[in-house]
């Protein structure tokens, strides 16, 4: 479990004589007028973040089985960058999964995140928590802004996709955005 608190900076232990590297936590959530199972079916597939995260344009599963901890994926970002990460947790019953970034062109290191869907009074609450450090040559405020921007826009995208549907059928969604729960996507997405 990631103990995350939005906007909190913690100091990492100093290396011999060097300045401590700050560690950041960013978290945001959105309430969506759709059943938790519908929201979960939209974000759950480790090999398909491009369905709901506008920052990701393609994903290839490079190791393991989709939605199984230990799986690895290679993602291409909208600006042409890349991200390689590992699925560290995935729980369908609790509607949550977590990843650990292995490599990225982004100004980050030691990045971990967790995505969770929970019931809310008016549907579901989708939460994205991230824990990370800025890369050594990066401006910490810029690294933080990058993560915050990605989280905010991805959550807004899911909310826009699911509109105001409030039942398990996906009523009110266009066929292109109606999530499915019967078939997992293929291992590679373009």
Tag the structure with descriptive keywords:
nine-stranded antiparallel β-sheet; 39% strand; 2 helices; alpha+beta
Report what the structure shows.
The longest helix has 23 residues, at 140-162. It is globular and about 50 Å long. The chain has two helices and nine strands; from the N terminus they run ββαββββββαβ. The chain starts with 8 loop residues before the first strand and ends with a strand. It is of the alpha+beta class and 190 residues long. Strand 6 and strand 7 (108-120) form a beta hairpin. The chain has a nine-stranded antiparallel beta sheet, with helices on one face. It has helices at residues 36-43, 140-162; strands spanning 9-11, 22-32, 56-63, 72-77, 82-91, 96-104, 108-120, 123-134, 188-189.
Could you give a short description of this structure?
This protein has two helices and nine strands. It has 190 residues and is of the alpha+beta class. It has a nine-stranded antiparallel beta sheet, covered by helices on one side.
Count of runs of 4 or more consecutive helical residues: 2
Strand elements, count: 9
Q: Overall 3D geometry?
A: globular
List the strand order in the largest sheet.
Answer: 1-2-8-7-6-5-4-3-9
Oligomer: single chain
Helix content range = 10-25%
Unreliable stretches covering 5 or more consecutive residues: 1-16, 165-190
Radius of gyration: 17 Å
What is the makeup of the main sheet? 9 strands, antiparallel
Mean pLDDT equals 82
> What proportion of the residues form beta strands (DSSP E)?
35-45%
| Helix-and-strand structural type | alpha+beta
Distance between the termini: 31 Å
Order of helices and strands: EEHEEEEEEHE
